[in-house]
Amino acid sequence: NAIIGSLDNFTDEEKMLRDAVQRFAVDVVAPKVREMDENESMDPSIIKGLFDQGLMGIETSAEHGGAECSFTSAIIVIEELAKIDPSVSVMCDVHNTLVNTIFRTYGTQEQQAKWLPQLAESKLGSFCLSETASGSDAFALQTRAKKDGDHYIINGSKMWITNSHEAEVFLIFANVDPSKGYKGITCFVATKDMGIEIMKKEQKLGIRASSTCTLNFDNLRVPAENVIGGEGKGYKIAIEILNEGRIGIAAQMLGLAQGAFDKAVPYTYQRQQFGQPIGTFQGMAFQIARAAVELESARLLTYNAARLKEEGKPFTKEAAMAKYWASQVAQSVSGQAIEWAGGVGFTRETGIEKFWRDSKIGAIYEGTSNIQLQTIAKFIQKQYS
Ligand code: CAA
Ligand code: FAD
């Protein structure tokens, strides 16, 4: 890659992983990107490929069939996939940083032994928190779970659930005791065959190959042993996992911005106008230089947050900053990349416009940009007041 910035604190293992994911993305994913975007569907061979490459249990222990890599490795995988297709990237991101991580962090030994191997081998996971009336205000969720002997009965619905068209394992957040407010929220694992109704896919502006569906639970019976982390612990599980997940979305947006940059910049040195390559006009060269600075800043924020998390240090504020900033950078760099390629950039042919369409979601999911700012602001207020 022409620019991966000056950040070079990756281990040999992480560098080898980056090379391997780059090869997979270029050889296997790239040929399918346009077709998947136009058909609004994920090619099953790509999902299988991700599992076969060991990328779907990236931090999972070898004992449970995973690759046992670092958190930074999981972030590298998301970034590399996003350089080629942000849809494939988010599928892997949700599966690893949200679903697998919940089992690894909060699951009992029995739950880990049961679920992690399936999730590393072939079964795709979904994280089901948002609802029609509770997006940013996620803890106001209306899905309810009622104990019934050795089962819980879940009723309600979820909206916007990534991977849900292809997934087999669902982490569902439901309230078992609304009188306790959000302290009744509980996390359950359920499988598709228990009777989850999965509605049609949303038609979207971007990340169109990534499935996003509404789910309905009509007296869904889930064994009591499928509660993760205990009754009432769900809200903390959800937000603590999202703190980590936000570094993943930062990496997705960083990879996306780099992917757009890598496509458009070489073109500016080939395309001649007024007898010289357009990229050598100062007006263009300075825009490109500024975009490189933006990319570098997003990269430093993202990998700094990843290392903090990996080293067990506080990282919530830094993760919010990384997600907020990388989402801004993704929009600005991919938007400019279209302009650098002129009319050609505006067509579907080059794929640059797709990066721009895909970039919009970064400021919306896993906490909108305002929610990230609110998180950062709370830290500042605590420190300075
Ligand atoms: N980290 C840890 N704990 C946090 C926290 C954070 N960032 N933010 C809030 N909390 C805790 C508080 O400490 C408090 O817990 P205690 O009572 O135990 O102390 C509790 O949460 C409630 O705190 P607040 O009253 O301050 O929070 P709130 O109710 O106003 O909002 C929130 C909390 C719902 C987490 C909100 O800040 C938020 O992040 N909303 C966005 C939701 C979100 O990110 N959804 C993503 C869905 S998944 C997804 O999108 C995946 C995908 O697309 C790919
Ligand atoms: P709202 O919360 O209604 O926000 C609308 C606007 O109001 C935003 O600009 C927001 O910043 C602003 N706003 C709201 N509250 C405040 C405030 N307090 N201060 C300032 N501004 C505020 N959810 C899942 O659970 N699992 C998934 O896998 C998942 N995947 C998704 C995939 C896609 C493609 C999309 C679009 C969404 C996905 N989501 C998922 C849901 C996503 O997390 C929510 O869309 C997001 O949290 C925002 O919620 P909302 O859409 O209800 O917007």
UniProtKB/TrEMBL annotation:
It catalyses: (2R)-2-methylbutanoyl-CoA + oxidized [electron-transfer flavoprotein] + H(+) = ethylacryloyl-CoA + reduced [electron-transfer flavoprotein]; valproyl-CoA + oxidized [electron-transfer flavoprotein] + H(+) = (2E)-2-propylpent-2-enoyl-CoA + reduced [electron-transfer flavoprotein]; hexanoyl-CoA + oxidized [electron-transfer flavoprotein] + H(+) = (2E)-hexenoyl-CoA + reduced [electron-transfer flavoprotein]; (2S)-2-methylbutanoyl-CoA + oxidized [electron-transfer flavoprotein] + H(+) = (2E)-2-methylbut-2-enoyl-CoA + reduced [electron-transfer flavoprotein]. InterPro entries: Acyl-CoA_DH_CS, Acyl-CoA_Oxase/DH_mid-dom, Acyl-CoA_Oxase/DH_mid-dom_sf, AcylCo_DH-like_C, AcylCo_DH/oxidase_C, AcylCoA_DH/ox_N, AcylCoA_DH/ox_N_sf, AcylCoA_DH/oxidase_NM_dom_sf. Its main location: mitochondrion. Residues 126-219 form the Acyl-CoA oxidase/dehydrogenase middle domain. GO terms for cellular component: mitochondrial matrix. GO terms for biological process: carboxylic acid catabolic process; fatty acid metabolic process. It is found in: Mitochondrion matrix. Pfam families: Acyl-CoA_dh_1, Acyl-CoA_dh_M, Acyl-CoA_dh_N. GO terms for molecular function: flavin adenine dinucleotide binding; short-chain 2-methyl fatty acyl-CoA dehydrogenase activity. It is an enzyme of class 1 (oxidoreductase). Homotetramer. Belongs to the acyl-CoA dehydrogenase family. This is Short/branched chain specific acyl-CoA dehydrogenase, mitochondrial. The lineage of its organism: Eukaryota, Fungi, Dikarya, Basidiomycota, Agaricomycotina.
